[in-house]
Design brief:
By secondary structure, this protein is of the alpha+beta class. It has two domains: about 100 residues, Alpha-Beta Plaits, CATH 3.30.70; about 130 residues, Pseudouridine synthase I, catalytic domain, C-terminal subdomain (Alpha-Beta Plaits). It is built from five helices and eleven strands. Strands 1, 2, 3, 4, 5, 6, 9, 10 and 11 form a nine-stranded mixed sheet that branches. It has a two-stranded antiparallel sheet with strand order 7-8. Strand 9 and strand 10 form a beta hairpin.
Length: about 280
């Protein structure tokens, strides 16, 4: 008779949620692609190597573009394998590249869905406004070679608070069913040459934050007055807004979920951001 250990597969499936962090620079974004060099591809291959089973399909809270960093992406997947939560963390990380790490693992009910169950999503953009290009921060901050008026940026950002049609900040390839989103007050603060802009909404359109950042930078540089952003929003046309800003300084801080799921809403590497 073949022995069965706690590490072997059981006949029933269970759903698992993972918190994932990654440096987006080496990858072609989150979503699986034919070349295999995406965060999703590396994670699924690592999970398959750890369980020595079939490659699972993971679903994420929010897809990120090439160059965008994830501090607490959340995924879920169904698996017939039973492991302790700490074992999922250690075992998966063993097979992941150094620029991706599982931060936490939780068993969740089948009603949980990483994307559909999320009530909010949080991002931060780090901008370096300095005459000299970043070196140690290369790829980790957006860069402009002039100082900016942070107060003007904050004044303009206030215009976007609430529920609006954000078509002016929507990429042409966006697959969202509606351009109407609800945005919490955008937080803009600075320390020296570094400016941090925090975004929180029920959901975001493709390139929405980077397109808003393009407008805020133009306002910070004095190219447009703060009141201009209100007319951009009202236009509901991508042509009314500034060009899409760099992906380098954009960080997905993670989603939030109902307390009943008892999932972490913070992990240590979030504290690595300035300000």
């Amino acid at each position: 008779m073949t022995g069965v250990t706690p590490e072997n597969a059981r006949p029933t499936h269970q759903r698992l949620a993972l918190g994932i962090s990654y440096n987006g620079l080496p990858f072609n974004g989150w979503q699986s692609q034919a070349d295999g060099n995406t965060v999703q591809d590396h994670l699924e291959k690592a999970l398959a190597a750890f369980t020595t089973g079939e490659r699972p399909r993971v679903l994420c809270a929010g897809r990120t573009d090439a160059g965008v960093h994830g501090l607490m992406q959340v995924v879920h997947f169904d698996t017939p394998f039973e492991r302790s939560e700490s074992s999922w963390i250690r075992g998966s990380n063993r097979f992941l590249p150094e620029t991706i790490a599982v931060q936490w693992a939780r068993h969740v009910p089948e009603t949980f869905h990483a994307r559909a169950s999320a009530t909010k999503r949080r991002y931060a953009y780090i901008l370096c406004a300095s005459a000299v290009r970043p070196t140690t921060d290369l790829g980790r901050v957006g860069w402009i070679h002039q100082s900016v008026d942070v107060e003007a940026m904050a004044e303009a950002a206030h215009t976007l608070t609430g529920t609006h049609d954000f078509s002016s900040f929507r990429a042409a390839q966006c697959q969202s069913h509606t351009p109407i989103k609800t945005l919490a007050p955008i937080q803009v603060r600075a320390r020296g040459a570094y400016v941090r802009v925090d975004f929180e909404a029920n959901a975001f359109l493709h390139h929405m934050i980077r397109n808003i950042m393009g407008c805020l930078v133009d306002i910070g540089l004095g190219r447009q007055p703060p009141q201009w952003l209100e007319s951009v929003l009202a236009a509901r046309s991508r042509q009314a807004a500034s060009p899409t800003f760099s992906a380098d300084g954009l960080y997905f801080l993670g989603p939030t979920y109902a307390p009943a799921f008892d999932l972490p809403d913070h992990c240590d590497n979030v504290d690595s951001l300035p300000l």
